[in-house]
Amino acid sequence: MLSVAEAEKLILESIQAIEGTEIIELAKCRDRILAASITSKLDFPHWNNSAMDGYAVRFEDVKQPATLDLIEEIPAGYQPQKTIQPGQAARILTGSVMPAGADTVIMQEETKREGDLVSILMPPEKQGSFVRYRGSYYQAGNPLLSPGIVLKAPEIAILAAAQCVEVPVFRRLRVAILSTGSELVTPDQPLQPGQIVDSNQYALEALVAEMGAEVISLGIIRDDPTELKSAIATAVQSADVVISSGGVSVGDYDYVDRILEELNAEIKIRSIAIKPGKPLTFATFPNSTLYFGLPGNPASVLVTFWRFAQPAIRKLSGLAHGWKPEFLDAIATQELKSDGKREFYLWGSVSIADGKFQFTPAGGTRLSGNLINLAGTNALGRMSIGQTHIPAGESIPILKIG
Ligand code: AMP
Ligand code: MG
């Protein structure tokens, strides 16, 4: 049985960003992952321009209070026609192009205008005051955005400004999801004695869809080795990642590992010293499809997805940073207990009090089969092997979810 850290390392080291990329329209690239370095042929700013409403002048002329002749008005979008000569100035507005000859802007509040004359009441601090120079933010040809970043509003604004209307992104991952178990029924079916509603399919679909991947729903597969083998073989052909729940324990009807072997998968993990979630299979196929055989219990499914599958899917999707789980320190709001035998994950909620994270575990029974108190979970608290109790007010490492 592997430790959580060993399992995490093994899984993440076996994954590289997918190779497939596609070109999409700028308007559709939100939340996608950039697949190539973006450069621009434009300098930013594109030309020297004014940072203020005021007057474009020659620094030489205004080292002391002076009155200058206004020779031109330069509103936004206008190309100046004249060159500022000694003793001259131009009216200029924020963002407008600096006229030739001028090197400094005097803000309106420090001037007095009378017809075609402007008096500069206060000398500027330095040459170039309130001028934004061409290329001072970015020079054409340099890397503007690097691959592996998620495209959110700031990056989309940059792409738009750089006139990058066709954006190279990693293709969406295809993730197949199936539930194993002859006791399972879909939520719309009447329950017979002994049957259980397949909640895992819905939980996993939501988790995968939230990550921006394409979901392939395979639904419930009975505990029948032939049916299960054919379902898994189809899933492996069509998906980058296959996630199943159930059937990975040591029961008589737990066929997943055996089927994976028959299908030539390399099983890298069979169980992990984690609670909840000990029976967890991770395998890779010769076509490089990844397989996560999560336990059947609903709480185990969520915890093991967040802890192992989510970082793996993030890394595979092309993210350059932020795929590795990072634990933060929080203060436990109540006493926390564990039997100390396996690395223990408590689901609960994190909030901020006095500028610090604080972690409150979900109330009630914390058994892996209980999904009722999972509502509102936004963090997992972690207790190490051998750690049996954390007093209220002490710190606990937490993993934020979502
Ligand atoms: P297994 O690992 O297949 O023995 O499943 C462990 C427990 O999880 C059993 O009580 C199952 O009934 C339950 N379970 C398995 N699959 C699901 C599912 N898709 N949705 C809800 N509960 C499940
Ligand atoms: Mg089962």
Report what the structure shows.
With 402 residues, the chain is of the alpha/beta class. It has four domains: 4-18 and 172-316, MoaB/Mog-like domain (Molybdenum Cofactor Biosythetic Enzyme, Chain A); 21-44 and 138-170, Alpha-Beta Complex (Molybdopterin biosynthesis moea protein, domain 2); 49-132, Molybdopterin biosynthesis moeA protein, domain 3 (Beta Complex); 327-400, MoeA, C-terminal, domain IV (Beta-clip), CATH 2.40.340. It is 17% helix and 32% strand. It contains six helices and 28 strands. It has helices at 4-13, 153-161, 200-210, 225-238, 256-262, 298-316, and strands spanning 21-25, 38-39, 49-50, 54-57, 66-74, 88-92, 104-107, 111-114, 117-120, 131-132, 143-145, 166-170, 174-180, 184-185, 196-197, 214-221, 241-245, 266-271, 274-275, 279-284, 290-294, 328-332, 336-337, 343-353, 356-361, 379-383, 389-390, 395-400. The strands form eight sheets. A six-stranded mixed sheet has the order 7-4-6-5-9-8, with no helix packed on it. It has a six-stranded mixed sheet with strand order 16-13-17-21-20-18, with helices on both faces. Strands 22-25-24-26-28 form a five-stranded mixed barrel. A hairpin with a 5-residue loop joins strand 20 and strand 21 (290-294). Helix 1 runs parallel beside helix 6 and helix 3 (200-210) packs parallel to helix 6. The chain is elongated. 36% of the residues are buried. The model has no long low-confidence stretch (mean pLDDT 97). It binds adenosine monophosphate (AMP) and magnesium ion (MG). Adenosine monophosphate (AMP) binds next to helix 3.
